[in-house]
Amino acid sequence: MVTNGKLFLPAPRDGSDFKELFKRLAAAGAGRPLGKDGFPAGPWTPELLAEAISQIDSNQVGVDLRTVQLWFQENDKGISTTNIRWLARIFGCDDPIATSEWQMELSAAQSRLSAKRREWKRAASRIAPDTALTGTFDDKTDSPAELTRYTDAKGPRRRFSLARKSEAFFSYGSPLNLPASVFAGMTALGFLSYIIGIHNVTYERADGLVKQVGFLWAANWTLDFMVFLPLFFFFVIELLVFWKSEGRRKLAVQGDQEGDDAWLRNVDSSSYTYWSVFLICLLFAGLFQWIGVSLIPLMRGGGNYAMDWGKIALVRPEIISVPETVAFTGLAYLYMCLVFYLFFAGLILVYTVVHDLWRIGDRLKKLSYVDHQQELNEAGLTVMRAVFRCTVLGVLVAIWMKVQSSYLASSGENIVAWLVGDMSSMFQGREHVTNGFRYRMPTHYSSLLVVISTCFVFLYGTIRLVVGGRVHTPLWKMSAVVALLVVSYLLIDTFAGFSTLLAISVLVALYSLFDPGLGRWRESDLGNKQSVS
Fold first, then answer.
1. What is the sign, positive or negative, of the torsion defined by CA atoms of 452, 455, 456, 457?
2. DSSP per-residue letters across 100-119
3. What is the rounded CA–CA span in Å between residue 407 and residue 270?
4. d(C-alpha 266, C-alpha 269), whole Å
5. How far is it, in rounded angstroms, from Cα 40 to Cα 29?
6. For residue 303, which phi and psi values (nearest 5 degrees)?
7. Less packed terminus of the chain by CB within 10 Å, N or C?
8. In terms of Cα–Cα distance, which of 330, 329, 299, 304 is closest to 314?
């Protein structure tokens, strides 16, 4: 039926709850204007529906996109009375009588969903009293229901899942929550270092060089934890929001009822990997490294490690005592190992998105009656851009880890003077010289692990999406940037003037974050008639 130039479907009154009813209407595109050919324009997407509701004249507030995205997801999320009114206007095609009928139907469907939700809660209490949900639900609000975090398609979930908990850190709430938390943690450590007096501190080395080893001068802490890692988390969250709320839904096969449950099963399939990474980060990168690099040298001396802010109490006891240094380094290493666990968890999630897109693409190609090539190209392009950005940021994190470690063993008075002096040495024809000191550098090894892990995800995305034909992108540009960064990382402190190559690669990398394609992409790059820059 056509009403006011829009596709109108009458209220079915079949006893469906809100999620069932909304899913059918959104897939049919009920309330959307007809195309120029007189046929339906296609299904609703969260963006289109949110825009349509916000354009209603009497709706002064509009509707949040996140709220609409929750309606589309496979969860127990309902709808508020206010939004029932606006949704009825959409499905009723601005016809007063039809809108009134749809308002009654949507209200009844929401009541049925609320009844089911209460039954789920009672079932959860009977099956697992010790894990029963204690949160209450407000049927009249659009806030995300906590029940979805503790239940799955088979009912209440009683086993702790590190994979799902890690995914929840990236998926729930504002995209700024996790980046802001990481930034705030480093800011707190910076303030604490200022209070105890190690933010800006020097010491005289055995060869007479006065060297800056202050906490705020450590590039692997300030730049990585305040700039590159928050950006990395932001891009991972942006990718997950796109994939779960838009990309995966657009590529859903007709009649496919998997929804969010399929995504969560993909996350659970990497559960062993999450636990392995968590134990390595907590025990080896955190506890054991703190004991070997900081605690034992502070307690017993020695340890053939370059002097830094974590051991400054040995040579400058008038600034900070050993117990204070032990406490501060313990807190810093705990923060570091938790953040790096989240970093590797982000890489696992990026890998999971790539694998999920590849798997869906294979399934769609087997359906000869469905042409999803354009949707695959668009989704693959967005995913590959995110993979590239995360790779660039991951290698930048490793670069500054190695730069800081190399500086501590160098003859530079501070890290800035060391890099500038090395850059000028290339133009003055000076040869690369060492200071004669040989230190253990565990950061060299850990930074190499970061590079390998990050580049593996990029290589996997390249093989699955680009080489596999899911998306046509200027791969050579992305690969050239990544290769330049990796070469710069490997050549740090190996020849006079290495910092010039490092500066060029960092500038190119920073520009590529804003323009992953490094220039306008031709239509042929996308495999369709659209031009994307």
1. positive
2. HHHHHHHHHHHHHHHHHHHH
3. 38
4. 5
5. 7
6. 95, 5
7. C
8. 299
Residue 173, CB half-sphere, CA atoms under 13 Å: how many? 11
* Those residues with Cβ within 8 angstroms of residue 187's Cβ, 6 or more apart along the chain or in another chain: 226
Q: How many CB atoms lie within 10 A of CB 428?
A: 9
* Distance separating alpha carbons of residues 492 and 6, to the nearest angstrom: 63
Other Cβ atoms closer than 10 A to 414: 17
Task: Please state whether beta strands 202-204 and 155-156 pair in parallel, antiparallel, or not at all (unpaired).
Answer: unpaired
How far apart CA 183 and CA 438 sit, in angstroms, is 34
**Cα separations (Å) of 279 from 162, 261, 283, 284, 337?**
12, 27, 6, 8, 10
This model's pTM is above 0.85 = no
How many other CB atoms are found less than 10 A from the CB of residue 242? 16
The tokens for 352 are: 């999971």
Residue-by-residue DSSP string for 204-221: E-TTS-EEE--GGG-HHH
Rounded Cα distance between 77 and 74, Å, is: 8
Contact 277/341 with Cβ under 8 angstroms? yes
Residue length, the chain?
Answer: 533
Q: What's the longest Cα–Cα distance across the chain?
A: 90
Q: What angle do CA 27, 30, 36 make, to 5 degrees?
A: 100
Question: Mind giving me the DSSP string for 175-201?
Answer: TTHHHHHHHHHHHHHHHHHHHHT-SS-
Q: Which residues contact 389 (CB under 8 A, 6 or more apart)?
A: 235, 512, 513, 516
- Note the pLDDT of residue 350: 97
> Phi then psi for 151, rounded to 5 degrees?
-130, 155
Residue 269, C-beta contacts closer than 8 angstroms, at least 6 positions apart:
none
Q: How far is CA 21 from CA 102, 112, 142, 255, in A?
A: 11, 11, 17, 15
Enter the tokens of residue 74: 């496979």
Q: Which helix (H) or strand (E) holds 238?
A: helix 229-242
Each residue's pLDDT tens digit, 39-61: 777 788 888 888 888 888 777 66
Residue 531 to residues 73, 251, 381: CA-CA distances in angstroms? 30, 21, 12
Radius of gyration of the chain from its Cα atoms, rounded to whole angstroms: 28
Residue-range domain boundaries for the chain: 2-136+154-158, 177-253+261-526
